[in-house]
Amino acid sequence: MYHLLIGLVINAISLWVAAFIVPGIYFDTSLMGIFTVALIFGVVNTLIKPIFQILTCPFYILTLGLFTFVINALMLMLTSWLSGEAFHVDSFWWALLGSIIISIISTFLSLFLEPKKQQYEDNEGEVVIIKHHE
Question: How many structural domains comprise the chain?
Fold first, then answer.
């Protein structure tokens, strides 16, 4: 549950920063609207993005992974469409720029907000993972 809430907060902050920086991305200014869009974005990335990734696997190979940016932009545009008035992206190019910013901000925030994991082997040779909440 903790991990889901942290993910929602990271998505909300990342989307808000992208809307603040990118002129082609618009946000409903209410806090509830931001978290609703973050929830939609999380669901889209969890359920729909893996399907797109499997279907476009040859493009990932041909572009050496750069096609990831295209898929992320499409997921942002889908979030815009599903969000209605709460969130809007003007064009694919703004979505591409926004998805790059969202990726950078999300990665940066995840370094500080998500729990750290430590891995070690116990006496019987089994790997044990411990999560630390700071």
Answer: 1
